[in-house]
Amino acid sequence: MQQARVVFNLPLSREFTYEIPDDICVKPGVRVKAPFGSRLLMGYVVAVEEQGNDHEADQSYTLKKLHAVVDPEPVFGELHLQLARWMSRMYFSNIGECLGIMVPSGKREKEPPGGEEEAFSPKPLELSEEQQMAVREILTQDQGAYYLYGMTGSGKTEVFLRAAAQTLEEGRGVVYLVPEIALTAQVVQLIRTRFGSSSAVLHSRLTPSQRLAEWRRIVRGDARIVVGARSAVFAPVPRLGLIILDEEHEGSYKSQNKPRYHARQIAMRRCSTEKARLVMGSATPSVEAFALMDQGGLKRLNLTRRLAGGQLPSISIVNMSKQEGPLSRELVEEMTRTKDMGKQSLLFLNRRGFSYFFQCRSCGQDAKCRHCSASLTYHKSQGMMICHYCGYKTAPVTTCPTCGSLDVSYSGFGTEHVEEAVRTRFPDWRIERLDGDSAQIKGHMEATIQEFRDGKIDVLLGTQMIAKGLNFPGVRLVGLVMADSGLHMPDFRSAERTFSLITQVSGRAGRYTPDGLVIIQTFNPHSLPIALSSVGDIEGFYRKELEVRRFLKFPPFGRIIRLVVRSKKKNSALALIQEIAKRVHYGQNTSSHGQEGEVEILGPAEAPLSLLAGNHRFHLLVIGKDFSHIHGLVHHSLKNLQVPSAVYLEIDVDPVSLM
Ligand code: ADP
Ligand code: ZN
Ligand code: ZN
Questions:
Q1: Ligand 3 centroid to 611 CA: how many Å?
Q2: Is the Cβ atom of 310 under 6 angstroms away from ligand 1?
Q3: Is the pLDDT of residue 511 over 80?
Q4: Global pTM?
Q5: pLDDT at residue 462 above 70?
Q6: DSSP secondary structure letters along 28-54
Q7: Is 245 helix (H, G, I), strand (E, B) or coil?
Q8: Which of 123, 295, 430, 546 is most buried by its number of CB atoms within 10 A?
Q9: What structural domains does the chain harbor?
């Protein structure tokens, strides 16, 4: 008689043993339906063994029987099981939860959703010398970690695709990661035409069953190059040869749900255990990646020229403290000139809605969400004040809710407001807006992008959605309406984000024309990320930022584990975070110190977003140079911790945000 060891996608860290009935065939790596309490749950079989081989303490009771098997063939193998085990330790999670985010939850369907078209190869581009050198370098060894560092438009995509094609030739598989599939239509199209039916595109719009069908094509080796966002890093390509991580600096590679993994970290892990190549790329590396290039942990490959003829745009800064409204005189002038030249403008703003800040001029009260410590944004098109964190809506106020004064004002400006200002200023131009609100309308985004590319729109304005990876031949002018919006966030990455945003957005101008122009509107023209990005001093910014980080012992000079406790009951949350802090301090004081063990414990304190969707939030930061030391310390401190019901503990290893 055989038995199966099963894990569930539940916050339980143990494996469960079931008897395998004679009439079903169970292999390790399949999903099964198993009785659990009074329910039937889907679980993952991690091992099949002879009965009597039970490691559990209590062997006296009779084992429950598996109910049914879901997959006839394994959906994960030993490599993924090992990866899940590693992740569960790394991210304070458990194996079932880790397998749960890797393996699609779908049921088996007939077969793939419409076959992919066959590959057709257009005339290949002649690679530049730098591109050739980069491709050659990547291919010299079977294994290695590289960073393709070059401005937008320097031809990184072509290097990725050549390295991918070569790796496929060697009989090995490729995973190509992008921040978001919908925004990288061009890359997806290139991959489909070049690799046809041997490619798989993991769209967020696939149903779980379609996802599973694609997953099975990959397991079978039918799809050997896989494109997708964050979770595609788990794609089970046999004989992995290359992982590409495009736009490495993007925050979307970090999961904000348990297990809070970073696709870059998983990619590094997979490439080292599966002996594959890793190639990341960006014009604005994360500060960590930049430091790693300096130390040689990542081999830096430079692309220094724009290949489609374009040059870097000239960038000018406009100080908004001397201006009225959202459009400066300089911006209006250049928009007019651009239109006269038959070219297009791209206006960029980081904030949806109409205005973001309400303030009473009598008592200073501002309009906060009832459930979050965040300000409400006025959305004129809906006539509502909306919370961007939890979605709470309320009618706009005309009198102060605190003192009843009628002297209230709205300031700052969102995309809707800028749109209105542009329409008023240029009544007969063709103007379109793309942001999270207008993208809700199905197909609107694709259609608008196409129209803009075709030159049917004079001014396109939007949020970061339009800052990424899109090439528009007709764009001469890029305006950053409010470069400061992320600058004052109480977060150690705010400078890095602002810098990367400005540099990325600037890259949208002048890709194909010699006279590209960028106008940055700001109230803080002298802040480092703004001043340095505007003169294109990328290296300078990283040096300065690294000094700050070194001083603060923040990444890359220290690793952070962040513990967040939340609850609707403030006192319960506070009590738990205090208990945790006590344990961490105790653990640190009783451990042997030395250089390696140097640890900084910050907090406990209210999280910057101290109220989120009705939950009070407190956090504690454990920072140290030696990762295994702080990891061990946290692990130890949380042993046997009782988390009361209705109180939640999140553990974030290497957080990308401290909000
Ligand atoms: P990046 O990914 O670095 O932002 P892209 O890969 O989008 O840059 O390339 C920018 C433009 O340069 C694209 O239009 C691409 O077709 C073109 N390009 C890339 N490589 C070459 C080349 N070797 N010769 C001519 N044009 C090229
Ligand atoms: Zn008031
Ligand atoms: Zn809210």
A1: 8
A2: no
A3: no
A4: 0.88
A5: yes
A6: TT-EEEEEETTEEEEEEEEEEEETT--
A7: strand
A8: 546
A9: 2-102 (3.40.1440.60), 129-303 (3.40.50.300), 314-353+413-551 (3.40.50.300), 559-653 (3.30.70.600)
